[in-house]
């Protein structure tokens, strides 16, 4: 067959596979029974090939993801229809013109936005967290339609009508138990920044014998991580002997994982209440915000002074209520992934306030290795570019190096879920935390969300304010004496998000640091994925359940060698 004719046939096949002529359109509304007031937000239309789970639960980075389209709506009135058509931005197919004829299950969701009049003079529309940890699928008050089966045919002209007559219910507040207490305060700093009441919360695990020893004052450890609905991984009762073990977790390739989790939670309770376990406070912070399920525990132009609010408002109140020692030598911080970055950042930005950090699989701690590329040298975040080709950058992998998705795909999914860094997902929160405020009041883009072209001026801002390796290098003369002996980092060398790349660079610096020497610890798990936290003797799916016990011995040793004269080393050792 002649080459030219072959190419023509290939071009024809490509055209037929990506454009289906007259495109379908959808009209979406909500009834007055759900809201009599007009609503702002991101209207999401989801198409799936299966009904279970609901289409809204099927959107993600996996190749099996559902299709999602998004449009911003402003002052949408009850009964008024919003149109989702070829102008809507989609993922993984970008336009409705690319949707093939066939049968689908369709669902619409309105992720509601509220108006914020910030202290900096900007007025912005953002999704307020409502106790769910910034999740558009489950956020209380978000409207959605019941999934319905539809057939899309070639030449469709009649819009498909969807009514969002369902609403996500409120999430109940967790209740105190003998060992788990809850605290919620209004932050003066954050309230002033956002122009409305903003609250911080925490779940506090108190030690055995707390009431029986009123004279005791306790060391404190902050367990950083994503939004915790309650203090998980602690149970006063063992799992039932006949507990169902037929469940299967694909991520870990393990059957009966729910029972494993329940057993580990009970084992932790037994350790916590045993005679020889050190008495201390463990704190999980709730600091969800209009951009994400947590704030990264730092001060940010876009999120406000969350770092100072946590350190100078929430932490002192926790130590007051639960008898913390309240001094830096008796405080520690640890966590994995987002929590790993936060643990190290807290140690770097508040070096005297903590006596050690244990950062597992941290988010990029050097932007010279911002996952798989150098943010400062690269021109494009999505592609490695040469004179004659563009190679997509991988975004996620398994321990064999097999790629799950690309950086571009993850970002395009976020763009479908929300403009102006409002997707509530990973790249957008990095942008919201690290970027300066743009002229429109939203975070300045680190790169064009559609094309991936990097803005070097924004990257330079990131470097000076949030690149932890750069900050340690730049300020080692003053920071070094305050953090030497305190930094512990652990990462699997096959981290799913390539987070080990930045850890390698941090290790190189810490090994060479002088005056003083860093006296740090960096360790890698051979072929371990995200989120390896330092134990090479058990699989990830076990060690991830033992954060609250695995660093205690190192904390005690640190206290022994660094406590000030006259420190209380006995009241909490009963």
Walkthrough of the structure:
Residues 1-25 form the signal peptide. InterPro entries: AB_hydrolase_fold, Mycobacterial_A85_antigen. This is Esterase. Keywords: Signal. α9 crosses α10 (476-483). It is built from 14 helices and 27 strands. The longest helix has 16 residues, at 3-18. The chain has three domains: 22-167, no CATH class; 180-366 and 467-562, Rossmann fold (3-Layer(aba) Sandwich), CATH 3.40.50.1820; 368-465, no CATH class. The termini are far apart. Strands 2, 3, 5, 6, 7, 8, 9 and 11 form an eight-stranded antiparallel sheet that branches. Strands 12-13-17-14-20-21-26-27 form an eight-stranded mixed sheet. A three-stranded mixed sheet has the order 4-1-10, with no helix packed on it. With 574 residues, the protein is an alpha+beta fold.
Class by SSE composition = alpha+beta
Q: DSSP helix count?
A: 14
Portion of residues within helices:
25-40%
Computed CA radius of gyration, to the nearest angstrom? 25 Å
CATH fold node name of the largest domain: Rossmann fold
Shape assignment: globular
- How many domains, as an integer? 3
CATH class of the largest domain: Alpha Beta
Mean pLDDT: 94
Q: Give the termini separation.
A: 86 Å
Keywords: Signal
Protein name: Esterase
Organism: Spirosoma oryzae
InterPro entries: AB_hydrolase_fold, Mycobacterial_A85_antigen
Protein topology:
Blueprint: H1 3-18, E1 26-29, E2 39-48, E3 67-76, E4 82-84, E5 89-91, E6 102-117, E7 123-126, E8 143-144, E9 148-152, E10 160-163, E11 166-167, E12 180-186, H2 188-194, E13 199-205, E14 220-224, E15 248-249, E16 254-255, H3 257-272, E17 281-286, E18 299-300, E19 304-305, H4 306-321, E20 331-336, H5 338-349, E21 357-360, E22 383-385, E23 390-392, E24 394-397, E25 403-406, H6 407-417, H7 426-434, H8 456-466, H9 468-474, H10 476-483, E26 487-492, H11 500-512, E27 521-525, H12 540-543, H13 547-550, H14 552-562
Parallel strand pairs: 1-10, 14-17, 14-20, 20-21, 21-26, 26-27
Antiparallel strand pairs: 1-4, 2-3, 2-6, 3-5, 6-7, 6-8, 6-9, 8-11, 12-13, 13-17, 15-16, 18-19, 22-23, 24-25
Helix pairs in contact: 9-10
Signal peptide: 1-25
Protein name: Esterase
Keywords: Signal
